[in-house]
Specification:
mainly alpha; 2 helices; rod-shaped
């Protein structure tokens, strides 16, 4: 192979072409590519930061929501227990009051029964005296010692 001036000119022009292309075309193109890569990296980092921040906010929201739900359940349970206790207390008071009223009513009924029994004894005694007087034709008086007889008649 023979090297002549054409080869040398072609080699020099290729080297000059490469240097000029680097300065005019490849360097600005490389700078644009670097700027785009830098922009993409920054955007990716911002997106990752925003995603992390959104995840943290969602987690915080979920924690607050769960806490609110548990607080609400606890509050409802406390109110139910309080209502049950109030119900038991009121029921106990009502039972006590009704027992007192029943005892009072029993006492009143017993007193009325005694009064009615005494009144009935008196009326039976009077009736017995009237019947005896009419049958015997003379006045008959029954004394209080005959209570046993009157009790037998009433029972």
């Amino acid at each position: 192979m023979e090297f002549n001036a054409t080869f040398l000119v072609s080699a020099v022009s290729f080297i000059l072409f490469t240097i000029i292309m680097n300065k005019i075309f490849y360097k600005p193109l490389e700078r644009v590519i670097d700027e785009r890569q830098k922009f993409l990296d920054e955007t990716k980092n911002d997106a990752q930061y925003s995603s992390n921040k959104a995840d943290a906010i969602l987690k915080d929201r979920d924690d607050k929501l769960n806490k609110s739900v548990s607080d609400a359940k606890k509050l409802v349970a406390d109110r139910v227990n309080e209502a049950n206790e109030n119900s038991r207390a009121r029921t106990g008071e009502a039972k006590q009051k009704s027992m007192e009223e029943i005892t009072s009513a029993k006492s009143n009924l017993q007193n009325e029964a005694k009064q009615n029994t005494e009144e009935l004894k008196t009326k039976v005694k009077d009736l017995a005296e009237v019947i005896s007087s009419k049958v015997l034709g003379m006045d008959v008086k029954i004394e209080n010692t005959d209570n046993e007889l009157i009790n037998r008649i009433l029972n």
